[in-house]
Structures
1.
Amino acid sequence: MEDAKHKVARAALDELPGRGIIGLGSGSTANLFVEELGARVRAGLAIVGVPTSESTRALATRAGIPLLDDEGPWEIDVNVDGADEVSAALDLIKGGGAAHAREKIVNFAAKRNVVIVDASKLSTRLGERWAVPVEVLPFAHGTTCAHLARLGEPRLRVRPEGPVRTDAGNLIYDVAAGPIDDPGRLDRALRAIPGVVETGLFVGRADVVLVAEKAGVRRLVRGG
Ligand code: 5RP
């Protein structure tokens, strides 16, 4: 598995321009990409990054990648990020690392989005493998949860040390609702609930998906 992640992280370097602004995703696969990119930057590649989480910021800084500030607006040329699940339509579930709110902002600010996964992440319809991560405000989260329960089975994400907090200090509910027939409709319904900050449904937001397989890296193109 680690080998597959390395392979696809390296393949993503071929998707980058010779210079420009690069969105830096979060998660173990995106981390490997950031490390590979750092080596290129140290060798002279003229790129600047926009990190999607505090952990990616720390990693990119250690790797020597110059970063833009958090305010935006940015003109991101290519954003490279991982995913938890990729459907046949190349829609995504993200948020396994609780970073999907920033990840979605950076995704929408990019001219092109490249997603890097191994073959275990592929499904026919979203929700076959993963629940949908939903970031919610801590205030009245029990009430928000009751609304979420009309759309699926929400479960508060908890670690032994307590509830998971996002970089913004919010909570995560993983809402099991799969398999999902219409992810765009579910995304809109979830986002209409007061207290919901962002969902992990990325519908129509991947231009290229690179999939690490035994034989090599398969390149899937949206609409291709
Ligand atoms: C973080 C994400 C990650 O991209 C997703 O969880 C995939 O992570 P990994 O590459 O470790 O499997 O959405 O919020």
2.
Amino acid sequence: MTISTNESIPVTSYKCGALTGTMTVPGDKSMSHRSLILGTLALGETTVTGLLEGEDVLCTAEAMRQLGARITRSESGTWHIEGVGVGALQEPKNVLEMGNSGTAARLLMGLVANAPFTTFFSGDASLHKRPMGRVANPLRQMGAEITSRSEDRFPLALTGRDLMPISYTLPVASAQVKSCILLAGMDTAGTTTVTEPKPTRDHTENMLRHFGARVDVELKNDGSRVISLEGQQELRAADVIVPGDPSSAAFIAVAAAIIPGSDVTIENVGLNPLRDGIFETLGEMGADIQISNVRLQAGEQVGDVQVKGGLLKGIEVPPSRAISMIDEYPVLFVAAAMAAGTTTMRGLKELRVKESDRIAVMAEGLKACGVELEELEDGIIIHGRAVPPKGGATVATELDHRIAMSFLVLGMASQEPVTVDDGSVMETSFPGFTQLMNGLGAQIGKKADT
Ligand code: S3P
């Protein structure tokens, strides 16, 4: 497994016919990071099947090795982690390279905040632009020392201290911030409490329990959630089964939904209710989506998603749903561009601080492809014309995997091919995207036969 070089690889997507087939997508990114982190904190050997072997997660694996875990991958693809236990992380010999991964960066800052050494963090140009104050501030409140570039940007150094537990209300709805504080709380005597006014993905809580921790979650009448964790509990090694990533499945679901005659089934997709907003939204837009075989697997809801192609209609997407589909908006913008009528999406300020400013970068690329839209500070209004947009542009991906995949999906349905300036960024979360899509009938990266 190698971390790719920074060589840009342009990739082109050509108009294709109906997509058909049954497939799985790579493992859930959020759960993959957490399985490596909790496996490191646990005593004994944790096994992980279905781990996402994308660059983001490989950065976390390498960081866990530096912090003392023994991590191997067997030929069958199962990962084995021999953890060090809570409070026993080792001082890394090198800078922890977080690549493109905001999740790795923010969760690991919490993880090492109580360790008796200084950890140096760095990442790529995208990560260096992202706000880290949202985690640095609560960690400072707990007692950690953090030195960074201006405005709490990477690279930064974090010196662990004996932390004090805090009770913290999230100022932004962010599972990364919640998880950072809970991980810092793991090695802190006393009870750490996080209140989230709007519930965010709860993989950290679910997986902490799966590793034997007691985590109290209280759902308040106003819809907020209060999560309390008693520090210095021991974690037991566990077997983790990672389902397919709904955020990756979304690209296939949208592609199938916008190409008439398509019929695809994505098996074994994670359907955590705090992550499944995209399927509900596509359904409201008129997509023919069937979810079946729903079951619980290692504490997480999993199922099969079948999508058939047709004509979508524009809708108003409720801003309250944004948290449950925050990573899916770029490809939802593509669905909106293919729909009949106007789609309004608001409450999306957080999209401006993802791997790129996803509102601005998508708006620019979509306009270059002939889509009519209005960019808003906290969202976008897209006027779909029910006929495929012109396409024919080369779009800047700005080191953002989801921008690259979204425009390749657009190219599958637009009149002229769409090129992304750098397809290598897809390795971040979806290794094998091109091959998988081409296996269903897409024409990506090569000239169409017709
Ligand atoms: C993630 C949380 C989300 C999401 C990211 C993964 C996680 O970020 O966008 O891709 O695994 O906790 P925020 O916490 O910034 O909303």
